[in-house]
Every structure is written in C-alpha cells, then in structure tokens.
Amino acid sequence: MSVQKNSPVIGTDRIPIHVGIIMDGNGRWARRRNQIRTQGHLEGLKAAKRVVKAASDMGIRYLTLYTFSTENWKRTAEEVGFIMGLVKKHLRGELDFYRENRLRLRHAGDAEGLPPDIAAEIREACGDTRSFGGMQVILALNYGGRDEIVRAVNRLKAENAGRITGKDLAKYLDNPDIPDPDLIIRTAGEMRTSNFLLWESAYAELYVSDKLWPDWTEEDLREAITDFQKRDRRFGGIKTGSDT
Ligand code: IPE
Ligand code: IPE
Ligand code: MG
What we know:
The chain has helices at residues 26-32, 37-58, 77-93, 95-100, 116-128, 145-159, 166-170, 218-228, and strands at residues 18-22, 62-69, 104-108, 136-143, 183-186, 205-208. The chain is 39% helix and 14% strand. Bound molecules: 3-methylbut-3-enyl trihydrogen diphosphate (IPE) (2 copies) and magnesium ion (MG).
C-alpha cells in the first residue's frame, strides 16, 4: 500500500474498534455534475468499496455503513428501486471481494420491512461470509435507531416480565455482540445523526467532513482516524492524571 506525501501517519495504537459512517451527499455529487441522483449512488458504491478496503487494511474491526434509513422510503420509487437493485447486485457480484479480504457481512435494520428478494440476498451473503475472521461490515439497510429500539422493546416485552435494565435492552438490539461505535463519521457536512445508531452512539466521537461521499478515499478515512486519535475520551469520568 503506498502512502502518499503529506498523508497523516496513523498511530498503530488507538485504532477505533468500531467505526460508523453516514454516507451522505450522493445526490449533491450528481447534481453538481448535472447528472441524475442515481449516478451519485453508483459512485457512492465505488467509494464504499474503497473505504471498506482501507478500513480493513487499517485494522478496524467493525465498520457500519448507513446505506438506507427507515426514512429513505420517502424518496421516489425510482430512486428507492435503484438503491435496492444496487445493493442486490453488489451482494451477488462481490463475494470474491469479501472472500479475498476475509470480510464478514452483517445486517442492521428491519429485514422484515425489506423487499423479500433483498432480504434473502442479505441473508445469503451474511451466511456465505460468516466464517471470515477479518473486519465485519455491517450494512445498515432499512435501519433507523428509533425503529431498532422499538423492535428491541417489543421482543424484550414478549420474553420478560418486570423491571428491565439498559443491559437487558441492549441484548435485544440488532447486533448485541458488536461493541458500541468509537467513531461516527458523517460526510457532506450535515451536523445531524439522522436516526443512526441512537442507542449505541452515546459515547461515540463525531467527525463531520464537508466532502461528498462519492469523493471519499482512503486518505479521508486516514484523516478521520488521525483526528479521532487526538480526542480525549472521558465517558463522563475525569481525565487520568488530571488534578483540576
Ligand atoms: C446518501 O446520499 C445516500 C442515501 C441516503 C441513500 P443522498 O442521496 O442523501 O445525497 P444528498 O444528501 O441528497 O446529497
Ligand atoms: C442519512 O442521510 C441516511 C443515509 C446516509 C443512509 P439522509 O440524506 O437520509 O439524511 P437527511 O435527510 O439529510 O437527514
Ligand atoms: Mg442526504
């Protein structure tokens, strides 16, 4: 892997274990080029592949990609259909990419609310990559943080009577074995989380980049990680060694 001139050097310590990315700005990327929005999603997928590879090479263990929210159904049928088709084609055609990089694919979100063929494709890809021990790529598709919590509460209620704790609830979230994200990146400049990992992001460091998602490269991820490494994470406590 070539390291370009001026590229920030990542310390090998403090590599975030779990990174979440709100991949935003595909539509704006297309509009700026007088292209249709779907062209932005195509380019966005290429960026996703670049960043997945880079994250895996950097030693990140979990990468959650916000791909389609529970609110994104509000878009035109054409755009929604295009995104679903893109996901399906990617999962069908890129198994070699997952195999070569030992990537394990997982899903976050409401699978029951997805078109059955997409849900089946995800199930299959998750099954095919199940034994791969490299980075886990969590596809957040038909995902909403509130929806995840509501689904968890309903399952929990059905199985438990009486008072529940936060720990109990967390067990019913979509991927309870995955540690909370350390870093959440949002591209395209918007200062909001748009219903991404509401419960899990309580102590995530936030990083917002103005660059549109289709323009993202390994270099941008490197910058985000270098920034993360300078953060002082206190989790509500006091900095070690601090006397003030
Ligand atoms: C992110 O890009 C992709 C999805 C939300 C599916 P957008 O499509 O939201 O792009 P903008 O925000 O309109 O530029
Ligand atoms: C968030 O982006 C969802 C995804 C990236 C999948 P949106 O474009 O849907 O978010 P808003 O509408 O700007 O909040
Ligand atoms: Mg957007």
